[in-house]
Amino acid sequence: MSRAEKTAVYPGSFDPITLGHDDIVRRSLKLVDRVIVAVAETASQSKSSLFDLEERVAILERVYEDEPRVTISSFEGLLVDFARTSAAPIIIRGLRAVSDFEYEFQMALMNRSLWPQIEVIFMTPDNRYTFLSSSLVREVARLKGDVTAFVPPIVLEAMVARIGPSVAGG
Length: 170
Ligand code: PNS
Known about the structure:
single chain
């Protein structure tokens, strides 16, 4: 019996994508056929940004260039509207710790009020990554720390170009 392809959207700021995010993307591919990694435009305009929206999309495209089941997109406006027009009725979100839960639970219920057909799947990353966040990676990098262990090699390359060799331990 054939079944319809399942597409999920994995939304976020991804400034930058970390190994924790990447772990969630790759785990998601065990559950669904396709994952759209979707960078929110509204989340890309803060003063503390490292990469702008176009740069984040370009970096993500390089990270997943060998994975045809992952596509990269940006979106503005409501996530549920993007999910609906992309025929992706599943949202994937990572949960690292209990502290993430309240905000994620609220967002999930709001998203489902806005579009009742949406399902939200919470996934936990490998425990090596439970402390990781993009904001901590940015802070460590800005303070000249080595972030090699926290981001995919393509991201490290882009961070060296933006910040300098210290981010790669140089
Ligand atoms: O990586 P982040 O910052 O945790 O991602 C948060 C994001 C982008 C998923 C969230 O802010 C979002 O969905 N923004 C799109 C606007 C929207 O739909 N807001 C209502 C959410 S209940």
